[in-house]
Design brief:
The complex is a heterodimer of chains A (456) and B (106). By secondary structure, chain A is α/β, with parallel strands linked by helices. Chain A is built from 14 helices and eleven strands. Chain B has 106 residues and is mainly α. The chains are: A alpha/beta (456), B mainly alpha (106).
């Protein structure tokens, strides 16, 4: 109960509304306190008894709105709850808010929300990253230690890196997507943020595992990730992919990565240079496949079934009026792009080609891991958090995902852990593991975090 | 492959978006800017490479075409003004009937 009350006090203190960080969109304090009291009354409480958490606004909740940061879903309250929310609540956690996000998770800066941008708590003149910027900011601002986000091309790891918190994208299929509003179904995965690696590990072990309501959730055993804590990385081989350390990389980020690799070496890990030769094709591939799938998934927002409906003279006109007013500019742009690459005459040149190159990207990872590497270490992002309005060209914004989108395309798990800062702005390091080897990913992450905590 | 104003109008119509004419030139420029980066894919040799249908090594799981019931927080009847035989009746598009389209709204 106290932790939930503290969360609301902290929300007021940092101002999470539109006049402040703008990171939390919907809350119901009375309901949250009642939920906390109900948990307190149970003698055998779960792993997260009384722990407050927030969830991104594209994860279905039954008493708070689920708008996906979009006008088209303004006022929409889901009649059912996402499995990830149910699992956290069953473990005793208490939902205290829904977080702001780029509209339909399309963006890398949180500047594309219908409800206004989220400010980075570390420096309010800068973006928090996206698309799960509200969740990252809520953790960074000290409101909660656990937050749910979603990943399609880096939407948890990139804001985690920009805000100085931990962010995890699990293996594709590791976590149920029942109740996650679909963006690009071959890429989407629910992810978690934590203040520390252990927070993220506990949250993931609660939400992971097969769900009969999501046929794409895998029937794989879930390890105790929070028990992966070790100081010893003897026998662990960490690959350093040369394509993630180009000459153009900010030398200060490169230096922090070298320090992190030294820390991993000091714990017994062997660091080996590897190559993932198709890395530079990830952005073109991602920005064909994701918009293509989005153009199909977002067809359901037509004014008939959900949220906004703009009356017009005829059915087609009603569809068009609703969608044109309901979707913001980035979503519109991506629907047009996705429709184009799927349209007659362009499908083979763009969509099929992208799917073929995606196979090559996945093969790169398989070959690296088959060569005896257990983990890959890379920077999470090519830069620190940038100022609002700094990236007006859409493709320049897309390049922010250059180090993260590859893991989504290949389906492998990845985590971003803070490894230092540049003039006060956080920098994240990324560890990538084999499919379903979150245990090894957390082992590396715990070691990395411990090394940094010792230094500071 | 450059995209033109007519292409934007065409895909907008396919996507049921009424893009205002004044926005077309900017969209043409932006989409061409984005697509110019996609041309790099054309240089990659992919003969004999299977197009990825999904991710990972696992095949698409098959199950009986039934799922567990969805636990609703509110009764079905509360979602729409009316329901019948377990289906929701949405507001009738009166204007649609005179527009000549043949889609049904119930």
């Amino acid at each position: 109960m106290n932790a939930v009350r503290d969360a609301f006090e902290r929300m007021a203190e940092v101002d999470v509304g539109p006049t402040g960080l703008n990171c939390i969109l919907w809350t119901d304090e009375q309901r949250a306190l009642a939920d906390a009291a109900a948990v307190d009354a149970i003698p055998s409480a779960g792993a997260l008894a009384g722990v407050p958490f927030v969830a991104k606004d594209n994860i279905a909740t039954t008493h708070l709105q689920t708008t996906c940061g979009s006008r088209i879903l303004e006022g929409y309250v889901s009649p059912y709850e996402a499995t990830v929310i149910t699992r956290l609540r069953d473990a005793g956690a208490v939902l205290v808010g829904k977080t702001n996000m780029d509209e339909f998770a399309m963006g890398s800066s949180n500047e594309h929300s219908a409800w206004g941008p989220v400010l980075n708590p570390v420096d309010r003149t800068r973006v928090p990253g996206g698309s799960s910027g509200g969740s990252a900011a809520s953790v960074a601002a000290g409101i909660v230690r656990i937050a749910l986000g979603s990943e399609t091309g880096g939407s948890v790891r990139q804001p985690a890196s920009y805000c100085g918190v931990v962010g995890v994208k699990p293996t594709y299929g590791r976590v149920s997507r029942f109740g996650l509003v679909a963006f690009a179904s071959s890429l989407d995965q629910v992810g978690v943020f934590g203040t520390m690696v252990k927070d993220a590990a506990v949250a993931l072990e609660v939400i992971a595992g097969r769900d009969a309501r999501d046929a794409t959730s895998a029937d794989c055993p879930v390890d105790r990730y929070s028990a992966a804590h070790t100081n010893d990385l003897k026998g662990v081989v960490i690959g350093k992919p040369r394509e993630y350390f180009p000459k153009s990389l900010d030398p200060r980020i490169a230096k922090l990565c070298e320090d992190a690799l030294d820390a991993l070496r000091a714990r017994g890990a062997e660091v080996r240079e590897v190559s993932l030769p198709h890395t530079d094709l990830a952005i073109p591939v991602y920005y064909i496949i994701a918009p293509a799938e989005a153009s199909s998934n977002l067809a359901r927002f037509d004014g008939v079934r959900y949220g906004l409906r703009v009356e017009a003279n005829g059915l087609r006109e009603m569809y068009e009026a609703t969608r044109t007013r309901g979707f913001g500019p980035e979503v519109t742009r991506r629907i047009l792009l996705g429709t184009y690459v799927l349209s007659a005459g362009y499908y083979d040149a763009y969509y099929r080609k992208a799917q073929e190159v995606r196979t090559l990207i996945a093969q790169d990872f398989r070959e690296a891991f088959d060569s005896g590497v257990h983990l890959l270490f890379t920077p999470t992002t090519p830069s620190v958090a940038f100022e609002f309005g700094a990236k007006s060209d859409p493709y320049e914004m897309y390049l922010n995902d250059i180090f993260t989108a590859t893991a989504n395309l290949a389906g492998v798990p990845a985590i971003s852990v803070p490894i230092g800062d540049i003039e006060g702005l956080p920098v994240g390091g990324q560890l990538i593991a084999r499919h379903f080897d979150e245990q090894m990913m957390f082992r590396g992450a715990f070691a990395l975090e411990a090394a940094r905590t010792e230094v500071s | 492959m450059a995209i033109g104003a007519d292409d934007v109008r065409h895909v907008a119509a396919l996507a049921r978006l009424a893009v205002p004419e004044r926005q077309i030139p900017e969209l043409v420029a932006q989409l061409n800017g984005i697509l110019s980066h996609m041309d790099a894919l054309g240089q990659v040799k992919t003969t004999g490479v299977m197009a990825a249908a999904g991710v990972g090594d696992a095949a698409m799981p098959l199950r009986a075409d039934i799922g567990p019931p969805i636990p609703l927080a509110r009764p079905l009847e509360s979602f729409a003004p009316q329901s019948r035989d377990g289906f929701l009746l949405v507001p009738r598009l009166a204007t649609h009937e005179s527009s000549g389209d043949d889609e049904s709204v119930e």
